[in-house]
Design goal:
The protein is α/β, with parallel strands linked by helices. The protein has a single domain (about 10-289), classed as Aldolase class I (TIM Barrel), CATH 3.20.20. It is built from 11 helices and 9 strands. The protein has helices spanning about 20-30, 35-40, 45-50, 85-95, 115-125, 145-150, 170, 180-190, 210-225, 250-265, 280-289, and strands at about 55, 60, 70-75, 100-105, 130-135, 155-160, 200-205, 230-235, 270. Strands 1-4-5-6-7-8-9 form a 7-stranded parallel β-sheet, with helices on both faces. A two-stranded parallel sheet has the order 2-3. It starts with 17 loop residues before the first helix and ends with a helix. About 45% of the residues are buried.
Length: about 290
């Protein structure tokens, strides 16, 4: 049964103080996009108040239309070749040590945008040699060459979100494929072979109608990769056009989910109502070391 009344523990105060507005103006002035705004993240005020943001590269229009996501879909513009330089300018001005970058899915590009990821990361490392980087990437339509190219960059974390259980993909993640998303993570894990590779990370939402058994199978699938960092958070319907919430999890249930994930073999798990893949990502990376 669907529960559409948001409980008290999920009513986060929205901050629109001068620091938040300053961050928003600066990002807009540079012609940059953030997943914080595009996906209507509930943590935006908290992060923007500190000058933190998760940058959304390759534009702000996605070629897919997942039922859970608020990011605009449609025909995107050509990638901005100076995007990495602009992000570096923002990072330098705000003394950011750990940058999180994600992107829309670009099925219209022959390489899914992999070359642009390379360009952005290389520009960041050239301009800010000490910056640490986490990439949250699309599935690149499962193309091994593009996945390996991005995973081989000088980054600390390679993330690709599984988002939900296999049984809900047809409804929730139209255009995506559960096994393909797992394979993205497996490809990166297979690159280890005695070599140093980034930490492998994934994230999932609860409250979309998944069962306890389905969640357990998902956790076991991720542990088998192996995924080293996992985030688990409550799905919140971003607009009336998106998939409704089927269930709100109680705060104490997240500790049980975390324990199950660890017991399944995932090394570091962050779980909570407002947990998101890029929220406090630097802390998750440090704690996983």
């Amino acid at each position: 049964m669907k529960n559409t009344t948001r409980p008290p523990w999920l009513r986060k105060h929205k901050q629109l103080n001068p620091e938040v507005m300053r961050t928003r103006r600066t990002i807009d002035g540079l012609g940059l996009h953030t997943v914080c705004e595009s996906a209507r993240c509930p943590n935006l005020g908290e992060c923007f108040a500190c000058g933190n943001a998760t940058f959304l590269i390759l534009g702000d229009h996605c070629t897919r239309n997942c039922a859970f996501c608020a990011v605009e879909h449609g025909k995107p513009l050509q990638p901005d070749p100076d995007e990495g330089k602009k992000i570096a300018e923002y990072i330098r001005a705000n003394s950011i040590r750990y940058a999180v970058l994600t992107s829309v899915t670009r099925d219209d590009l022959p390489d899914g945008g992999a070359a642009h990821f390379v360009r952005v990361v290389e520009d960041l490392k050239r301009l800010l040699p000490s910056i640490q980087i986490e990439l949250l990437v699309p599935d690149f339509s499962g193309r091994r060459e593009q996945i390996e190219t991005v995973a081989a960059l000088s980054i600390q974390v390679f993330a690709h979100n599984i988002e939900t259980v296999r049984e809900l993909y047809a409804r929730v993640r139209r255009g995506a494929d559960y096994e393909r998303s797992l394979e993205v993570l497996r490809i990166v894990a297979s690159m280890r072979n005695g070599k140093s590779i980034p930490r492998i990370k994934s994230g999932l939402m609860v409250g979309l109608g998944e069962t306890e058994e389905q969640l357990q199978r998902l956790l076991e699938d991720l542990a088998a990769v192996p995924v080293e960092i996992l985030t688990i958070g409550q799905y919140l319907q971003p607009s009336k056009f998106n998939e409704p919430v089927h269930r709100y999890y109680y705060p104490d249930e997240y500790e049980l989910l975390r324990e199950k994930a660890v017991a399944s073999g995932i090394r570091h798990v962050v779980a909570g109502p407002y947990v998101r893949s890029s929220y406090l990502a630097e802390n998750a990376f440090r704690d996983s070391l």
